[in-house]
Amino acid sequence: MSTRTAFSPGTVPLRGAAPTDLQARALRDLGRTGRWRPAEALFWLAALASFFFLPDQHLLLTEVVILGLFALSLDLVLGYAGIVSLGHGAFFGLGAYVAGLVSIHLTGEPLTGLLLGGLAAGVLGFATAPLLLLRASDLTRLMVTLGIAMLLYEAANKAAWLTGGADGLQGVWIDPLFGRFEFDLFGTTAYGYALAVTFLLFLIARRIVTSPYGLSLRAIRDNALRANTIGVPVGRRLVAIYTLSALYAGIAGALLAQTTMFVSLDVLAFHRSADVLLVLVLGGVGYLYGGLIGAIVFKLLQDVFSTITPEYWMFWIGLVLVVIVLIGRDRINAAPLALWHRIRGGAK
Amino acid sequence: MSTATTTTRDPALMLTILIDGIAYGMLLFVLASGLAVTLGLMNFINLAHGAFALMGGYATALLMNRAGLPFLATLPFAFLVPALIGAVAERTLYVRLYRRPHLDQVLFSIGLVFMAVTAADWLFGSQQQLITLPAWLQGRFELAGVAIGRYRAFLILVCAALVVGLQFVLTRTRFGARLRAAVDDQRAARGLGINVGVIFASTFAVGSGLAGLGGALGVEILGMDPTFPLKFMVYFLIVVTVGGTAGLTGPFLAALIIGVADVAGKYYAPELGAFMIYLLMIVILILRPQGLIAR
Amino acid sequence: MKRRDVLVGAMLAATTMATGLPALAGGEPLKVGLILPMSGPFASTGREIEAAAKLYVAEHGAEVAGREIELVVKDDAGVADTTKRLAQELIVRDKAEVIAGFGLTPLALAAAPLATRAKVPEIVMAAATSSITEQSPFVTRTSYTTPQVTSKIAEWAKANGISRVVTLVSDYGPGIDAEKTFAQVFDDLGGEVVDSLRVPLANPDFAPFLQKVADLKPDAVFVFVPSGVGAPFMKQFVERGLDKSGIKLIADGGVTDDDILNSMGDPALVAITGFHYSAAHDSEANKAFVEAFQKANPGMRPNFMAVGGYDGMALLYQALEKTGGDSDGTALIEAMKGLSWESPRGPVSIDPETRDIVQNVYMRRVERGADGELWNVEFETFEAVKDPAKSGS
Fold it and tell me: Is Membrane set as a keyword in this record (chain A) (predicted)?
């Protein structure tokens, strides 16, 4: 299901060029793709501005940012390694439950829970990654990941002594951030916290995907066989990125648990996994901003439509999706994509 | 707390459970068969497949409850209404998306599901649609000491006839040959004078019609409300994935295995209850990543 | 809890500032945030409650004690974190002074800490798990609790010659609640629960479970499943001939939900249910309610959800009368304690101790009325039942 063929040069060695030339050229290209561009700065400045100028929307924005981070985590595997997953909710949910349980049984300090939530999801990702290496079609991967998520959902439902079952986890309480910033009712601390964590993780993700490692991933995505023959350890690379992606999803889940101070079975439900795929595809796959933009568009649409018609908002969202596809996602995405190409230094 | 373990090994009872499972599996197959064709053969991800089942289910429920038609008389409508809508949708919408990336197809078809679900809600309300079966389909009869639900026996007969018919059309008729040719190599098929567009449209229509029929037959057992396409989407996908995308035999076997395992699992190992179907799917896919019958 | 108390002080300051001392402003409209599942699998819950709440406002006028009531309906699609966010937005942004609705237990529980922090009354109109009202001193309830009804069903069963029972419940919070309550009460009375079956919530086919019931040959099977699932259950019960094998079907009234009872057909006639509301309840208040409801919403019949929404508004109106329009959260919740009124379901009151509803529980059987429709006809009444899980009886 690879969707984009735009590929930066420099990954395929040119015959006849001297090794030192090659190295220099590769480094130059890497530096270029890693360079920041005005549009990106603008995006994050706008995010920062929303923190100061939209105090009334902090609660909704927190939800947007968390969904965006979650979609970003899926983008790491789908956009950069070509692995489709319909079970990413498993990691999101596990992160949420771990963060919730940490706050009840261990400490209310937010960063500990965040980290542990992410780690737990990462471990699960690492443990289940080999299933993705089966020589299988996209459909099989889709269903195996979905199956794992559903098993986890049922397990959480059964383990009511630990998770509270269908009633949800009661008594989650998060201490002030750094001992200073109370998680207030207006969601200001929550939004700042979620935004900062997301930005940090974005920076790391960006660094990774523009590194040689990231390029090798894309080589795998575009043609695993060829990647293998030029010496990329395909299996290990995929396990690594899947684990990282799971960790990200876990942190997103932990953020949700901490900012809402509540965890229910919903975090593991099928619709989480489906929604996040939807959001990512809506925003565009394979350029890191897709998840964030998709989350903004989807949540805002949902908010607007469900205010107008609480019963039938889904119809209008559906219509928007259908129209977007019929017009052509590429055409709609052309604007940010063109921008991205410019950001990448005109690499075509 | 369980006291009665002796009865569980009764062979007549095991047969009853087997038949329940087969009936359930057959129903799943009819519901998913259209998807097996569009996804398996035409390589198009149509998550809106359940929406056609919804139309069939509603056609039957509404015609019975509002127009007073008998159950059997509604079944042709349950097939024709979604088939017709399917044909129109294929010609106007789906046809533009055959060559688009899978992710576009996902986005598009899930959009259609959202619209279908809310439209059904808006038109007919959000509550369950219920029907009353004719008396001759209610209750059970005994065959050589094995108790069999009449409706379940009916389901098995109808679905078995459909399976045989489908297999025949697909493998023994000119239409089937053309469809397989069109799927394998569109350009070559066109070159041979096969009207690929008409073939695809009619296949899509039949697939949608079958989904509708499955929905109608399932009202009594699976229930029918506006969220049906979302609730059962996963089940359809499981049947097709586990079965493999080579044809209809794989999904048919998969549906039977899942149906029997689900019913038997819930009876003999209730604590595994909801896990069964997913565990089974994962195990089968690990053993046979391409599904039971691979291309 | 200590941490919470410290915090409450801070939050109080914040919310009071935010709401701009609304308490005695008088004349300012009072916003009621009605958070319901209006879409998704539980949409019919939301529709019934919304229709009934609006009916109450239409019947009694939008103004009470000088305050105009403004209902703000929000859809949470049955997802708990959405419920929480909507409740929070309603409170801090839209300045809602009462939050109400809550279609499912986790949704009500998600909002409870908010009610405490912001000191905003939370009127639970649907969710039925006993513990909800214990999660915050600002939570009150106008629906019912599972143990309230289930305990009386168990009592009735034992008193009517049923001594061996198999329980069959959906495998989720309320179902397990019902299973435990039934087993406990029935056991105390000397009955025997032969087996306890739990059916997965997303379960399309009851065949294997009903087969188990048939094997065990109990006097009766006690059933608790979510309302939409009741119909297929009863059909398969009859299909297997269990009704003719002498096994009685006793159930929580959600199984014969008035909303869809009429379309269930004859299989529904086998059910004996216990519940707090039937659209066929024989009283003037109920006749007027049903008639007005059906007039305003053609094709719908009010069910227990609707009456929960209707009484939720009744509770709010009376509390406002009592405070003279003062909508301060603490004053309102205090005013609600101990209120009693004649509801369409019969006499009800709010327990001043637990803030939970006290009401009659009726045993009913399904009958075809003179109009040819199916109704839950009450034949026995347990009066003024408190939630046994909290009153210790």
Answer: yes
Where are any strands of DSSP class E within chain B?
A: 140-143, 146-149
> Per DSSP, what are the bridge partners of residue B147?
B142
Which other chains touch chain A, taking contact as 3+ CB pairs less than 8 Å apart?
B, C
Contact A173 C4 (CB under 8 A): yes
Residue B292 placed within a domain:
no
pLDDT of A339 reads 61
What confidence score (pLDDT) does residue A330 get?
A: 67
d(CA B212, CA B230): 15
Range of the domain at C192: 147-275+361-391
Verify whether the Cβ–Cβ distance C212 to B129 is below 8 Å. no
Same domain, C136 and C183: no
Q: Is residue C219 over pLDDT 60? A: yes
**Identity of the residue in B17, B128, B150 whose CB atom sits nearest the CB atom of C211:** B17
Residue of A nearest to B126 (CA): A311
In a domain, B202, yes or no: yes
- Minimum mean pLDDT among A182-196, C9-23, C132-146: which range? C9-23
A314 touches chain B (CB under 8 A): yes
- On whether both C211 and C132 belong to a single domain, the answer is no
Per the structure, the complete domain to which residue B128 belongs is given by 6-287
Residues C101 and C210 in one domain: no
Identify whether residues C252 and C367 lie together within a single domain.
yes
B2 Cα to chain C: minimum distance (Å): 5
Polymer length of chain A: 348
Q: Contacts from B15-19 at CB under 8 Å and sequence distance 24+?
A: B15/B146, B16/B146, B16/B147, B16/B148, B16/C211, B17/B263, B17/B264, B17/B267, B17/C207, B17/C208, B17/C211, B18/B260, B18/B264, B19/B146, B19/B148, B19/B149, B19/B152, B19/B153, B19/B156
Asked if C139 and C46 sit in the same domain, the reply is: yes
Chain C contacts of B238, Cβ < 8 Å? Answer: none
* Residue in C45, C50, C76, C88 to test binding to A, most A beta-carbons within 10 Å: C88
Statement: the pTM of the whole predicted model exceeds 0.90: no
CATH of the domain at C101: 3.40.50.2300
Residues of A in contact with C47 (CB under 8 A): 311
Same-domain pairing of C108 and C181: no
**Does A190 have pLDDT greater than 50?**
yes
Question: Based on the structure, what is the number of domains in chain C?
Answer: 2
The residue of chain B nearest to residue A147, with distances taken between CA atoms, is B278
Is there a domain that residue B209 lies in?
Answer: yes
Q: Predicted confidence band at C6 (pLDDT cuts at 50, 70, 90)?
A: very low
Give ipTM to 2 decimals: 0.87
Domain residue ranges in chain A? 56-292
* Chain B residue numbers touching C260 (CB-CB < 8 A): 127-128, 130
pLDDT on residue B263 = 84
pLDDT of residue A31: 64
Q: Do C263 and B2 touch (CB under 8 A)?
A: no
